[in-house]
UniProtKB/TrEMBL annotation:
This is ABC-type transport system involved in multi-copper enzyme maturation permease subunit. Keywords: Membrane, Transmembrane, Transmembrane helix. The chain crosses the membrane at residues 67-94, 106-127, 136-157, 172-194, 326-347, 367-388, 400-418, 448-470, 499-519, 525-543, 555-575, 587-612. The keyword Transmembrane helix applies. The keyword Methyltransferase does not apply. It comes from the Bacteria.
Length: 618
């Protein structure tokens, strides 16, 4: 092909100067045939390069846009934290506010009061959106409110203002921020390939943060004063650019038009009969003509009956590009995480110091690097491994990836509990720590916090790799099966449905980590491993055991219920069925599992104190 192309294109013929080269160069055996072959290979390689660049130009927007959206969320979170704590740092120069937390008891008390206020505000805003399961949102909202209260009070502390740099550069914080920075930089580098970045950014202000996006407008229309149709202005406000769904109901027969003058109608009026069964329903995704004009000032209604008509418009508002909601979601998660780390450090310095020491020691172990390397290798391997599932490879990738990350996290948690708690007790190191002003409660809590911080870093790094692989996986599958390249929204949806699963599996790791720390006060490492493994297996079978016990004898039922009480119900954290079916995990389910985790961790902490309180450390 290259030779034919060379012969038909004069631009690729050999320059005439080659024919006039001195005879001395003829001994180099660089004849016309070799020259044509060289140019032929160069033209072929150039064509291959252009083809590769052309293919990259086709699939790069699909790969780059989901990553860019998440990176913008991280940058927005940084901006939120900088603005919020910048304002609090300015307030800290006020003597009455800057010294408010100098006395620990006063700081904690005021933080709890501020947390109660924040919790009340959050409950008023978000509890009505929970529907029938609104009670499940109560504890998560209170937890977030208390965290914001501590962040508010200690954010105004003069010591916090002076220690921000050391806070961001100590312990596990640089690893978390570094991973977020690498992900954000990757997204910014891919900006030239992003599809419609301006539209995504313009959709951010339309994201529903304080509500679910439902807007109800009521128009009362008087009847016509004559026999001629008389159209009155509806007098309602809406932004049709953000309307995803619309329902119009009326108690009288009315007509909807786009002008008061029938001669100026751009289309025929829309008839609306009374009754909910006659309601007009519109969805943006159906790409049908809207029943009302885009400009609310043009909406006019004619009431055909003799009594005033009540027309109810129910709008479901979403951003013009719905995926922009994930930007705000990521920003809020980042802000709350940074707030939790800062509040823990400032409000509980002894626990934080012990947690940082534990986390640094565990992250310096060879096992940590081994688990991290195996996790990254496994996630990358799953991305290119042919599962041969006839189109469900990406679901198996998600299932395998999140399960691998969870297993790595649990191994690290149990191992760290054995080396950090059990071996320190046996080696009398714990006695040295407790000889300082550190109580046994602070010792257990600090060890558990440090172990979970090291696990969090592992989760964050492996999750970041998994999200990048998930963004490319739909493209890889389409190229392998010679199908049409998917749109970028497909990869974004796969990422956003994976994040809640990762959150659930991290909560499950926290539950197993709590059990491991409690048992480490009495058991050596090997016995702890075996016990935690048994609890994990039985815990994932708790729900089936209870269900099967109902159909058996009373003794079998009693044993099944006893196991359900003693062993944690880890099946609550398992959403493999949702992952396999491609369904998203609802936030209300996350709230319910969080409630269970809090109660379980508190119970395990009390058990750990019972086991550790009378332990002879000498």
């Amino acid at each position: 092909m290259g030779t034919l192309f060379l012969q038909s294109s004069p631009r690729f013929e050999l320059p005439s100067m080659i024919a006039g080269l001195p005879d001395a160069f003829s001994s180099l055996s660089f004849g016309r045939e070799q020259s044509i072959s060289l140019v032929d290979s160069l033209s072929t390689s150039s064509m291959d390069s252009f083809l590769v660049l052309g293919q990259m130009g086709k699939w790069m927007p699909t790969f780059a846009t989901p990553i860019w959206v998440l990176s913008i969320g991280l940058l927005l979170g940084v901006l939120m934290a900088a603005v919020a704590y910048g304002v609090l740092a300015i307030l800290s120069f006020v003597p009455a506010l800057g010294t408010i937390a100098d006395r620990p008891r006063q700081g904690v008390t005021l933080s709890l009061i501020a947390g109660a206020i924040f919790s009340a505000i959050l409950c008023v805003i978000y509890l009505p959106q929970g529907g029938d399961n609104r009670q499940l949102l109560l504890l998560p909202l209170i937890t977030i409110g208390v965290g914001l209260g501590f962040g508010f009070i200690y954010g105004m502390w003069h010591r916090t203002r002076d220690e921000w740099f050391s806070m961001l550069t100590e312990g596990v914080v640089p690893y978390l921020l570094g991973t977020a920075a690498v992900f954000a930089v990757l997204g910014l580098v891919l900006t030239p390939f992003v599809e419609n970045p301006r539209g995504i950014l313009e959709s951010i202000p339309s994201v529903n943060v304080m509500s679910d996006g439902t807007q109800v407008e009521v128009a009362t229309i008087d009847p016509a004063s004559s026999d001629e149709p008389e159209f009155f202005a509806a007098g309602i406000e809406y932004n049709f650019r953000n309307v995803a769904e619309l329902t119009i109901e009326s108690d009288k027969k009315v007509f909807l038009a786009d002008s008061a003058d029938p001669a100026a109608f751009s289309r025929s009026p829309v008839e609306l009969n009374p009754g909910s069964s006659e309601a007009i329903k519109y969805r943006y995704q159906d790409r049908e003509q809207p029943p009302i004009p885009g400009d609310p000032g043009k909406l006019h209604i004619y009431n055909q009956e003799i009594d005033p008509a009540r027309v109810v418009f129910t709008f479901k508002n979403l951003p013009q590009i719905p995926q922009a909601s994930s930007i705000v979601f990521i920003a809020i998660i980042f802000f709350l995480t940074l707030t939790a780390l800062m509040a823990t450090r400032q409000a509980a310095p002894r626990v934080w110091a012990l947690a940082l020491s534990t986390a640094k020691n565990e992250m310096a172990q060879p096992l940590y690097l081994l688990l991290l390397a195996l996790g990254i290798f496994g996630v990358l391997l799953f991305g290119i491994f042919p599962f041969n599932t006839l189109g469900d490879d990406i679901r198996l990738l998600k299932d395998s990836g999140v399960t691998l990350i969870m297993i790595m996290g649990m191994l690290l948690a149990v191992w760290s509990a054995g080396t950090s708690v059990s071996e320190e007790i046996e080696g009398r190191t714990a006695l040295t720590v407790l000889s300082k002003p550190v109580s046994r409660r602070s010792f257990i809590l600090g060890k558990y916090t440090g172990i979970m911080l090291s696990v969090l870093v592992l989760f964050v790094i492996l999750s970041a790799v998994l999200l990048v692989v998930l963004s490319y996986k739909p493209i890889y599958d389409a190229r392998e099966t010679s199908e049409k390249l998917p749109v970028w929204q497909v990869g974004h949806e796969e990422i956003m449905t994976t994040l809640p699963v990762l959150g659930l599996y991290f909560m499950e790791t926290m539950a197993i980590g709590g059990v491991a720390v409690a048992l480490a006060t009495r058991l050596p490492l090997l016995a702890n491993f075996i016990t935690c493994f048994s609890i994990y297996v039985i815990g994932n079978l708790t729900s089936p055991l209870v269900a099967s016990a109902k159909e058996n004898t009373e003794l079998v039922g009693f044993v099944g219920k006893l196991i359900a009480v003693v062993v944690p119900n880890l099946n609550s954290f398992n959403v493999q069925a949702a992952v396999d079916s491609g369904n998203a995990v609802p936030l209300i389910y996350l709230a319910g599992v969080f409630n269970y985790l809090v109660v379980f961790v508190i119970a395990v902490w009390m058990l750990a104190m019972l086991l550790f309180e009378d332990r002879d450390l000498a």
